[in-house]
């Protein structure tokens, strides 16, 4: 309770500075105490006592802790906590000391210097990356639920956290903790042994209204890390995006008024869509830690991305319990991605197209696409389309073999860090199907093609890369949602058949002033 009073005084120092002007002369102490009790909803402060864990005797009322001492310590930059434990609630409360004693059968240990960081997250939000970076910078204890392989993993996860506390003041409970039950049991278990432990929620903001955006970002991260994860990977869990969606929809949002979350002392909101650097700095500041140098932060993040797990598990969509795994089709063949292709990594492709139309009479076509917000944000070249798991059962063997070739390449060369935009390595294999030497490639293009319905850029692939499309291309824009990107194929096929070089009815070909070099990376697209 004294800890909460210290936090109350620190907050009021910033909000109502004048309230504390006479504290060093013992003026206003009672008023501040009563404000604190009123805020906490306590009408009988005598039941809130601070006990000395060693002597077992009553030391002082938590509500009567010296506010002037708190003020002096705050001004000196060192607010300290003096309470070791407190009998803080009605019978049956999570934080009830008597209940904790009854459950553990042991006298509670001191725990005021301990902090438990509890993520409330979803898959692909970056919680493990953040945890590893914090551990690199500050030496925190770190327990990954994904490393627990025994039966009753929830119990073993909590036990592993308890074993970290004797050697660490701060321990990160690296798990999604997206259910009330998980958080309540975890906090109760830790408080059984460390009743004064400060519990901080790292609350990734998973807003249901932003589900599509969050699903898109987290799915990209799962794809980017490839097979470098203990359990959920594109290769081992083919339709993993369904699991991501389920986690988002079933998540129990943080609710400090609920029984499950009332034991949480501090909440640090984290943006799912922000990058690791932004979230790491935000957490460091919220925990009042000394800010490391930019170089140290860079090194910690690099170490986190370079992390390679040693435990391997397989996760299936539980909605198919009792059926064949999602990662295996009915005929035993491994499930494939929706399609395999090249994601364009050249950052300025859209700007280059805008500059290309400046001063041209066809500028109106481009402006119409821009005005209608039809220009794509992400560009790719489809190499082989597989469809969903049902459609894949009907694919010809030649397409399956080509898809497997790219799946094997991606699985063998994927890393936990995002692909770089450095110089591309050309493919060194023959078109017969031997493996390529890199996922990074360079495409070349000499013209832009558009009709009244679709705009695309035909591309030439590097040696060794094979596409099922006769004319590989990047679809830049479509007229509206009714026009599917696949229409680019029809336009280019029609153009090739009629050997048009300048214009062909509604199809227009605009040559570039010079050959365009486009960087990209071979990827599996699962949705």
TrEMBL record:
Q: Which Gene3D superfamilies does the record cross-reference, listed alphabetically?
A: P-loop containing nucleotide triphosphate hydrolases (3.40.50.300)
Q: Where is the composition biased (Low complexity)?
A: 412-429
Q: Which GO terms describe its molecular function?
A: ATP binding; RNA ligase (ATP) activity
Read off the InterPro entries from this record: P-loop_NTPase, tRNA_lig_kin_fungi, tRNA_lig_PDEase
Q: Which PANTHER family match?
A: TRNA LIGASE
Query: For the tRNA ligase phosphodiesterase domain, which residue ranges apply?
Result: 286-523
Q: Where is this region: Disordered?
A: 84-111, 410-429
Q: Where is the composition biased (Acidic residues)?
A: 87-96
What is the protein's name according to its record?
Answer: tRNA ligase
**Which superkingdom, per the lineage?**
Eukaryota
Q: What is one process in the GO biological process aspect for this record?
A: tRNA splicing, via endonucleolytic cleavage and ligation
Which residue intervals define the domain tRNA ligase kinase in the entry? 116-272
* Pfam families per UniProt: tRNA_lig_CPD (PF08302), tRNA_lig_kinase (PF08303)
Q: Give an example GO cellular component term for this record.
A: nucleus
């Amino acid at each position: 309770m004294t800890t909460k009073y210290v936090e109350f005084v620190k907050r009021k120092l910033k909000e109502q500075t004048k309230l504390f002007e006479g504290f060093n002369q013992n003026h206003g102490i009672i008023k501040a105490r009563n404000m604190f009790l009123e805020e906490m909803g306590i009408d009988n402060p005598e039941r809130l006592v601070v006990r000395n864990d060693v002597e077992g005797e009553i030391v002082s009322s938590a509500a009567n802790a010296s506010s002037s001492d708190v003020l002096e310590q705050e001004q000196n930059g060192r607010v300290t906590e003096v309470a070791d434990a407190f009998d803080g609630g009605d019978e049956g409360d999570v934080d009830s000391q008597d209940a904790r004693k009854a459950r553990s059968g042991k006298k509670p240990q001191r725990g005021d210097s301990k902090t438990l960081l509890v993520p409330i997250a979803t898959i692909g939000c970056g919680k493990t990356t953040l945890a590893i970076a914090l551990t690199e910078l500050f030496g925190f204890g770190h327990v990954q639920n994904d490393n627990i392989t025994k039966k009753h993993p929830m119990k073993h996860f909590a036990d592993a956290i308890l074993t970290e506390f004797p050697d660490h003041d701060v321990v990160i409970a690296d798990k999604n903790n997206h259910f009330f039950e998980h958080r309540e049991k975890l906090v109760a278990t830790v408080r059984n042994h460390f009743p004064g432990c400060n519990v901080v929620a790292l609350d990734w903001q998973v807003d249901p209204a932003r589900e599509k955006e969050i699903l898109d970002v987290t799915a990209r991260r799962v794809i980017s890390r490839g097979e470098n994860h203990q359990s959920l990977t594109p290769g081992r869990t083919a339709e993993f995006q369904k699991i991501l969606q389920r986690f988002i929809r079933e998540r129990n949002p943080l609710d400090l008024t609920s029984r499950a979350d009332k034991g949480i002392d501090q909440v640090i909101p984290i943006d799912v869509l922000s990058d690791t650097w932004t979230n790491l700095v935000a957490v460091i500041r919220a925990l009042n830690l000394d800010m490391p140098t930019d170089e140290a932060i860079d090194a910690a993040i690099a170490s986190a991305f370079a992390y390679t797990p040693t435990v391997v598990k397989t996760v299936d969509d539980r909605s198919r319990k009792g059926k064949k795994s999602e990662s295996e089709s009915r005929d035993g063949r491994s499930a494939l991605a929706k399609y395999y292709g090249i994601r364009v990594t050249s950052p300025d492709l859209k700007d280059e197209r805008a500059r290309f139309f400046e001063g041209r009479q066809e500028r109106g076509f481009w402006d119409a696409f821009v005005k209608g917000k039809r220009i794509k944000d992400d560009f790719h070249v489809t190499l082989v389309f597989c469809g969903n798991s049902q459609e894949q059962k009907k694919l010809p063997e030649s397409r399956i073999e080509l898809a497997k070739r790219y799946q094997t390449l991606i699985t063998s060369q994927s890393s936990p860090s995002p692909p770089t935009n450095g110089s591309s390595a050309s493919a060194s294999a023959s078109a017969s199907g031997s493996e390529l030497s890199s996922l990074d490639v360079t495409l070349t293009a000499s013209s832009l093609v558009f009709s009244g319905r679709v705009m695309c850029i035909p591309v030439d692939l590097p040696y060794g890369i094979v596409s099922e499309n006769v004319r590989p291309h990047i679809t830049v824009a479509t007229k509206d949602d009714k026009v599917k990107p696949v229409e680019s194929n029809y336009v280019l096929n029609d153009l090739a058949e009629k050997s048009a070089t300048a214009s062909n009815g509604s199809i227009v070909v605009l040559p570039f002033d010079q050959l365009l070099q486009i960087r990209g990376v071979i990827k599996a697209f699962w949705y």
